[in-house]
Write a structure and sequence with these properties.
The chain is α/β, with parallel strands linked by helices and about 230 residues long. The protein has helices at about 40-50, 75-90, 90-105, 125-135, 175-185, 215-230; strands at about 5-10, 15-20, 25-35, 55-60, 110-120, 140-145, 160-165, 190-195. An 8-stranded mixed beta sheet has the order 1-2-4-3-5-6-7-8, sandwiched between helices.
């Protein structure tokens, strides 16, 4: 298993992506969609963990149109300020296009089996939801995406599995928004939604203020079960 950066071309330019490969053999792809802190150590660790489970994991730099190469943490106010500024400048629609470009590119990489899914956290959780409705991802997983309730109409487009891990006490999502999401997707045939009572935003971010090891492990096990079932 090795990690490296490569370049992905688009009609608008090119961007970098971090790739972690499994030890050997053909592997399904998982596109890891970043938080607001860029392609940082946390996201690279997610990719490496997926590679250890037999997946070809790739983390595209989705902030490349604003500021390429963002790699910051959640440890200082300055970094939080930078992260929120980047999020506010971010074009969500272009971001989803870049995820599709990454899926297409990664499926053609040596060692890729052809199946490809996505998993996203925070901002990436929202993008994973939109990738499920707008891209050809074979399976999508969203961790504590914010603002999903404003995109519920797009769920009509779903034709592949979507799993959502929702924090019951997410400080970036009020109770009304959470209820709209739960009710709106409750009976959707392609959606599995798990509510983690008492958990705050980013409960699966190792080293984060609200990290909860037990529920993070539970969510990750559910994610891997979905990918095994749908990607191989």
């Amino acid at each position: 298993m090795t990690g490296e950066y490569l370049t992905i071309p688009t009609v608008d330019g090119e961007f970098k992506a971090y790739v972690a490969r499994p030890a050997a053999g053909s592997a399904p792809v998982v596109v890891v969609i970043q938080e607001i802190f860029g392609v940082n150590a946390v996201m690279r660790e997610v990719a490496e963990s997926l590679a250890s489970q037999g997946y070809l994991a790739i983390v595209p730099d989705l902030f490349w149109r604003i500021e390429p190469g963002v790699d910051i943490t959640d440890k200082t106010k300055a970094e939080w300020d930078q992260a929120f500024a980047l999020m506010n400048a971010f074009d969500v629609d272009k971001g989803v296009e870049d995820i599709q470009t990454t899926l297409t590119f990664a499926r053609q990489m040596p060692g890729a089996s052809g199946k490809a899914g996505v998993v996203g956290y925070c901002l990436g959780g929202k993008l994973a939801f939109l990738a499920a409705t707008r891209t050809d991802s074979d399976a999508s997983v969203s961790y504590y995406g914010v603002g999903l309730d404003t995109h519920l109409a797009e769920a009509e487009r779903l034709s592949q599995p979507l799993m959502l891990h929702v924090a019951g006490e997410d400080k970036f999502s009020d109770d009304a928004a959470r209820e709209r999401l739960l009710v709106g997707l409750k009976n959707h045939p392609h959606v599995e939604l798990f509510l983690y009572e008492g958990r705050d935003h980013a409960f699966a971010r190792k080293g984060g203020e609200h990290y909860h090891a037990a529920d993070a492990a539970k969510a990750d096990a559910r994610t891997l079960a979905l990918f095994k079932r749908t990607l191989g």
